[in-house]
Each structure stands twice: as C-alpha cells, then as structure tokens.
Amino acid sequence: MDHRAVKQAEKINSSNSPVLQYCGGALSPEMQPPKLLWVKENLQESWSMVFRWMDLSDWLSYRATGDDTRSLCTTVCKWTYLGHAHMQQMSENDSRDMEACGWDDDFWEEIGLGDLVDGHHAKIGRSVAFPGHPLGSGLTPTAAKELGLVAGTPVGTSLIDAHAGGVGIMESVPEAYSDSNDYDKEAICHRMALVCGTSTCHMAVSQSKLFIPGIWGPFWSAMVPEYWLTEGGQSATGALLDHIIENHVASPHLANRAASQNISLFEILNNILRTMVDDQKAPFFAALTEDVHILPDFHGNRSPIADPKAKGIICGLTLDTSDKQLALLYLATIQGIAYGTRHIVEHCNAHGHKIDTLLACGGLSKNPVFIQEHADIIGCRIVLPRESESVLLGAAILGAVAAKKYASLSEAMKALNAAGQVIHPSNDPKVKKYHDAKYQIFRQLYEQQLSHRSTIAKALE
Fold it and tell me: Among 450, 420, 409, 422, which residue's Cα sits nearest to residue 163?
C-alpha cells in the first residue's frame, strides 16, 4: 500500500522501455523500480551503503539458507525481470543456478538506476530459480537453531505471499468441475484466484502470453511453471472495509456489542442487514443499497484502469448515524469491491482469458456476505478451499517440492489442493438486473471523476 513513489513511477513510464509491456503497459508505484528510484533520490546515504536489495520472501530464503538465488516470482512480478528468458531451461539440470539473463540493462540505465547493473546485477540478483527449487544445502545450522528445526531441512525458492495463495488454491476444484479427460493443460486456465486480504490480488494463468492494458503481466512461470501469469488487483479491500467501519460514529458501540457476544464486527453487521431485509420488505438482500453507490478506489486503482490518482466516491449519504446506516455503507462497500473484481474479470476475458470459476482465499473469503455478493455480481461460481490458510499451504508446497516429495509444483498442487464449499450466483433474474444497473453506475462514477478532474485542471490553468 506504499504509494510514495507515484512521481517516480510516472517518470519510469515515460521511458517507453520494452519491459513495460510485461507490466500491463505501465509500472505501478507498488513495484520495486519506482520504490528503488525513490530511495536513491531521497535517501542517498542509505542508497550508497546498501549491499543487496531484496524482496521480503527472497530475504527470508536467503536468511534461512545463505543462498542468494532469487525467485522468478518476485523478480518477474515486481522487479521487471523477463522470466521468459528461461523458456529453454525447464529441465532440472538446466534450471540449477540459472544465471540472471532476464534483466534489461538498458531499462535500469535509462531510469537512472544503472548502478544496479554493476557486478552482474549483484545487488538485485545474479541467479534466479523457479519457485520450489531447492536452495543451498537447506537450513543453515544458525537458522535451524533459531527456528527450532533440523539443519539441512530443504527450503524452496520463494513466492510472493499472494502468489503462494494462488498455488494453494488453483487446483482446489471439485471433481465435478474438472473433466479428467481434459486434464490437458487448459483446465486451470478457466480459473481465477482471489487472494483477499488488506488488498486483493486476482491471478489467472494462460498457455499463451496475453498483453492486457492495466493488468500486470504476462509473467512467465511466475506462479505456475510454464504458464503465463496475469495479475490484477485492488489496492485496498479489507483495508477499505476497516476504514469505512472505523470512521463511522456507530462503530465503537457495535465493536462493544461484538466483543460482548464474542463474535466479529462483520458478523454483527451481517445480522443487522438480514434483519433490515425483513423490516424494510426489500425484494432481496442486495437491494438494501439501492440509494448508496461506492467507487472503492480510496487508494487509487491498481487495475484495470491503473490510475494511482483515482479517488473513492460515496454517493447517497444522509445525516443518519445509526447502526443500520453503517451496515448499509458496509454492504455498499462490499458491492463496490465486487464490481471492481467484475471489471477486472470482464477486462481479462475481453483480452483472451476464459475465466468462469473463481477460487477465493484470505481473511475476507471467510465472510459469507462478501463471497455471495461477489458470486452474484460477477456471475461466476466461487470455490472456497478446504484448507482455509491457503497462503501457508502454498508455502508448504514449495517445501515439499524442494524436498523432492513431488516431481513438480504442478504435481504437488494437484495432490495437496482440495475444494471445500462452492458458492453459486443467485438464479433470480431480478438480482442480476439490479447488479447490472449498479455496475453501470459504478463505471459512471469513475468517468464522472475524470470529468471533474479535467474541469478543475482547466480552472487552475
């Protein structure tokens, strides 16, 4: 959620480097080159002292093993590394200690970070490996002692947390939905993983590279080996719901009620909404928000508009400060987030994807209202995994592959992913008609914002 490098991202995006086409056409301020440029411009003493720049997950594996081999996931998704430079290195022998040949030196020079090219890219990664590749000799004696584990325990090359969630759920589909004859490589390409936490990541894979404006990627082998990864996202989802709730005058009272009943605040709000359906004789649950419309871009739009300057909008406020009013704002915010996901899914499908099933994990996926509204609004079934901590499962799969328990990441995913509950969209045509109308309003809110921005810019000329 760190957006301090917006100006640096704009500067980099004006470079027209070929690496930008593999990030949806523009780098986000959430990616590493803008952040690195910000540090160089603002913390010069720190910049000159740095020995290595590392992603968190690469740092953890380095700390555990002493092996500074970087992950294709972190370097490709966040650092502009071109993973497809390794398309010929899929065999075990070829992929051992791959030299980092996917860096575009001209790009680093052009954006003012040419010193990162020095020493065969020593500061940002001299060698890379596929996720799950065994690192060094496993846990070092020091790391093993600190962790209470055995020295030499295998450690796999890392994944970014959300991508570990993707590995933990992408094969979690009921047998009824996976045609065994169709275990051709296409089945997984019809799914999108939603990793829903503070922000939400939307991840889908394809066998061919799909260039989609405003969507990160295509990233080769960055999550599932030999597939191109497409990555959408919303910068604030769980964080936005917390913001809406905590800034409402009714929030402390409801928080006390939730604590006294030993249930979550979300459960209290869901119960209030269910009562309101009966009290107001609403035709269906979602119709409670007929007068409230929310554009959830309070922290910019990551995709598919890729506008870090986008702002949130709440339309339909009154002087009401009751619990019920907070419940309505909460529901409208969930719906706004779901319309944002619908926008991403439709945009991906318009550019070559064939997504018809969503798989959801993370904290928000445990909220039944959040999941049902997403199913109704997007019109897709949503599969929840049997293992609720899918990010941890994905990380464990990396260890299992590094330990040679499975021959490949794909094989381990098929063995260790399992489906739990399946949530289907409402079959009430009125619900679909309602959400189609609200989605139209959702899209108009951003168009109006652009118009307002333009009007003010002209006034300030």
Answer: 409
